[in-house]
């Protein structure tokens, strides 16, 4: 029988699968590959370099999620900048960054925003709050990504073809299940929206393989307790009122059209990219790194010459080793 | 790609709420979610309620897990 | 520019072990090379355990404890893990100029109460004051000595095949209490540090069984890091049962929310005992109500810690490189 290849799009699923040891339970006919849904992995080196350059200004407090602190740009990470005495702070919520701005009016507070459709509406809401409260020393570096353009690339990819997708539950809470319908129908790839507990993931794998066997190219929500077809309309509205789509570069995948978000004209004054003109070094890519193929599910970490040798969680070369939820890091941590 | 945890709304004040994650409480924002009331369960991501949940947990019991494992084999 | 010291060189993980090793070989001797938390010395036929440790914590006061309590119990526990009864400690303070005297008094009151509780005496001490910004408020060093309790079997750093692993209670409380206070995450959790002295419990274990091979307190790096060290030093494997590892519901939840693995979160009042199968339940009784048997020493998985997950699949627990940071993904 032909092997069935499923892609878990979301990095949090990758971690949950590795943590519970789910791959070891699967029959040999089912293969799980990890997708591009890890913001830390796909944030371009140049975008990190820009945040680093901005953090060098004396009057700047750079803030970001803990996820981004140790991700290396071309040379250094934000955590390295903190170690050198620059004011770099970890926040749990974008609103924490706004609060820092309120209490440090003499400083410019920059929030480096990464993430997908789950996270960007919270930042949009915070920008609106800053506008209403007249907080003028708060800026956003928008490195957000949209998952659907990337998902479409995965669905199109022939070498090797993915048979079906385990779709990110929490992105879907915002977007709803509707956007997957086009992808499922157009490319003949069933999609199952999954929750994050072990039972959720197992159920979704069973459901997805069943759909594939029956050639039913539909979208099924296994995470019914949280996901509706139309999603969270208010969050979508807030997102679209503050941000607009833009072309953006993904680490490992390159430029993808209309897959990023930038602040709309009305909110441009919150744009850290406009506030701070910085020169960023050109990024070099290590030739031997196959992260692009790993992100597309075409190759597995152990096929990479650098894996576990030149590239480890301590000295990551490519994006998939950078984040603890990256394919290579999860593989190194849990399966090596 | 996004951690979100279910919590019960115990108090609503303007655009904010106090929620309970099974013994841990935190103030969160209701800025991007409409139509919730005290007693509802919501998913919380980076200090925001992002959506309602009808049941706080999956049936992650050992029994369901065993059954799922059998189906897989 | 040469390599520099980073925070990861002090977090109990891989980089710290490399640094410790690099320094250790400069002084290499039989006692030091055993690499246990306390050195075992023989002074005129008496067997003595000797240990030293420095304490830095932010914030100085956190739910369930403070730097004074940590400084006493930390050294007391290191000595106790060697099978010794702690007796005397030293107290050395490095203070940043500007520290409030009343704050210092509060810390010292805590030191006094902790030493009473652990039945040790502070018998010598020192104070240094450094310029503002040359230290962060106060750093404390304590050293201590204890008398090794006579047993037939020496308690060392090497586990033996077939040993069962017993833990004295629920994990990850100290780390989660401190991070909530330090990062001002705003969780109203009621989670308190488990910071406590282990000498009484440890002595009970030693009296309950003569077949204990290793005792280890679980501090920085948590349960997983301590077990990785023991597996590697013993040249054996450890199999750990996820189901049996005790953890409070709210601690697990907070870990889930921040993306932390509780197995790697710090404790300050937990220890594990490696003991022959025959005596495991006796030792467990000595370790109190919340004690649990969580694993076994095996000859497979050499030098590795293998976690059997709830669904009976497995994964290897690695020695960590970095401390965990709150994540959104």
SSE blueprint and pairings:
The complex is a heterotrimer of chains A (336), B (73) and C (329).
Chain A: E1 4-10, H1 11-20, E2 30-37, H2 39-42, H3 45-55, E3 60-65, H4 78-83, E4 88-91, H5 94-103, E5 108-115, H6 120-133, E6 138-144, H7 147-156, E7 164-168, H8 169-175, H9 178-187, E8 191-194, H10 198-213, E9 219-221, H11 233-242, E10 243-250, E11 254-263, H12 272-275, H13 291-295, H14 319-322, H15 327-334
Parallel strand pairs in A: 1-2, 1-7, 3-4, 3-5, 5-6, 7-8, 8-9
Antiparallel strand pairs in A: 10-11
Helix pairs in contact in A: 1-15, 6-11, 7-9
Chain B: E1 5-13, E2 16-20, E3 25-29, E4 41-45, E5 48-53, H1 62-72
Antiparallel strand pairs in B: 1-2, 1-4, 2-3, 4-5
Chain C: H1 14-27, E1 39-43, E2 46-55, E3 61-62, E4 65-66, H2 67-80, E5 84-96, H3 101-118, E6 121-130, E7 138-148, E8 164-167, H4 173-182, E9 187-188, H5 199-208, E10 212-217, H6 222-234, E11 237-241, H7 249-258, E12 271-275, H8 280-286, E13 292-298, E14 305-308, E15 314-317
